Amino acid sequence: MMKKTIVAALSILACGTGWAADGTPATADAQLIKQGEYLSRAGDCIACHTAKDGKPFAGGLGIESPLGTIYSTNITPDKDTGIGNYTLEDFDRAVRHGVAKDGHSLYPAMPYTAYAKVTPDDVKALYAYFMHGVEPVKQANKDTDITWPLSMRWPLGVWRWMFAPDVATAPVTATPANDADKQALLRGQYLVEGLGHCSTCHTPRGFALQEKALTDADGSAFLSGGVVEGWLAKNLRGDMADGLGSWSKEDIAAFLKSGRNGHSAAFGGMAQVVQDSTQHLTDADVNAIAVYLKSLPPVNKNATQPLAYNDTVAQALRSGKDTSDGAMTFLNNCAACHRSTGKGYAETFPQLALSSTVNSADPASLIHIVLKGAQMPGTSAAPTAYAMPGFDWRLTDKEVADVVTFVRSSWGNQGAAVSASDVAKVRKEVGAAKAPAR
User: Fold this and answer.
1) How many CA within 13 A on the CB side of residue 364?
2) Which residues are annotated as a binding site?
3) pTM (2 decimals)?
4) What is the CATH number of the domain that holds 385?
5) Which residues form the signal peptide (predicted)?
6) pLDDT digit string, tens, across residues 91-150
């Protein structure tokens, strides 16, 4: 689900219903266009195909990859620089099969491995929207910054042959209780594995940048968490400490609609996903996503007990008995919002106690937030976009390590310690300010 990343949609997308004899797009049904607009929200096309301060869907957004910078393409119906000359068949081949109009294979940054699950009817609706519901913008596409020989395209065909799935839907592994549950489960699976392409961020990748699992049937790596641009896209499986095991279906739905709930708040790329995509989904679709995610078993099937809150640290902070470096850094910089209890303020300043982000085996996101801050999305359900400032200019690597370690070991949290070298690595990766001299 994180856009502006290597996992972003970088291919030429096109949508519509047919072509007239003179080569112009045929008139599309208004309802079909409206359906396509909704589906484009579900797919979050705008996040990758719109540059900062740019025209919608005109492309030009630079996206970093291990090979170099790739720029998203113009997917407006402009005939010269966009997808105005694409047929429905061209679009389907690109989106679901990873092959462009001229026959070259798309970079695997394009999530066609997920879009392979999109139904032909939904492809048709998307095509109608992009051809008839989007303003054409004349803006030439930018070449990638990938240098030769890595810029050669033919190896992408091999990658596609090895790792891309057939255009089919994997079976649902959970056993629903009744027909209504089954419908919600299947719809949720379709949105998560297909248009939502959640696994492109939330699934770890292998040596060839392939997702280690495309469905739950492929193994527990599916949606178990992945690192994207210095953020950890969280584990979406049923693990208690770092997954969604302690979240209810209602918690998940609230998070997707508002960007926050009693457990956490959206940050990094996920904030934009909520802003541009999930808040616009129907309640039925959001609930279906929640039903499906709650059907996924944990990675660690032996850790079935939730973490338990412990107020020992809170009492020590209030009484002045904890004077460790980490505790003092927390009191001086964090406690005003997150409180000595670690519980924060509901849906305003996220709780740190028992947080899945705090307890993750990989502390990258927590370090990233401390260094550069983060901002919640402003949504219809929760309009105020609360923000946390970054402390990269104020705290040394050791001070960040001390406070992160303190947080990860307080109030019942069970995260491992963090070192100054861990912080220095993240500081460099995310482009944070140089650590202050002491």
Assistant:
1) 17
2) 45, 48-49, 198, 201-202, 334, 337-338
3) 0.89
4) 1.10.760.10
5) 1-20
6) 999 889 988 898 888 888 789 999 999 999 999 999 999 999 999 999 999 888 877 776
